[in-house]
Amino acid sequence: MKRISIIVAVVSFIIVLASLGFGWPFGSKKETLKLPGTVELHEVRLGSKVGGRVADVMVFEGQEVPPGTDIVRFEAPELEAQRKQLECRLAIAREELKKAETGPLPQERAEAKALLDGALAKVDKVRIGWRKELKKQAEEELKIATADWKLAKENYDRIEAIRIQASKTEYDTAKTAWITAEGRLAAASAKMEMVSKGGWDFEILEAQAEMSRAEARYQLLTEATPRQEDKEIA
Asked: Which of 36, 136, 142, 218 sits 20 to 30 Å CA-CA off 161?
């Protein structure tokens, strides 16, 4: 009798455990846990520090994205222009660094030599004075200005002689033409005198200064070697 009571008690205990959800070891092996509740959705509106027209959407609706993921790309022509400008500055800085490490390029030495030769030729030209074609041009201008002045002077003298019969308009026109021709003659004479004497003193000094600058640059590029401070600046 006592043994039957123990068996009944054990069976009752097993039934109670099964009713409380502890019957998994004896039944199904599914790990799904079903619990009652309510799922709430929260809509999040994203903002951007930089506004503009959307150029590309990099995710799709409902996609789970980790932090730091690019979602959209804006059209930003101003920023694109700034990026290209910075890339150009970076390229220039790299060239400067390369120049500081390797020294002047052969092309730079050649350009400096060409500038020096040009400056020397200019000094010689100024010191020698006028060129033949320049003198010829000045002579032609002086000849034309002289002929115009003579014609204007003769016309003015003729109007002046018959001033009583001539109108005021004719007189003023003749006088103005004579004065204008006289001014052109003076300018042509001054140019001819300048060409005959050669370059002015200040022109010679300017040419010599240009030659000195070109010579200094050529010597600098010829004797230059990479320096540590140049590398640091670059």
From this structure: 142
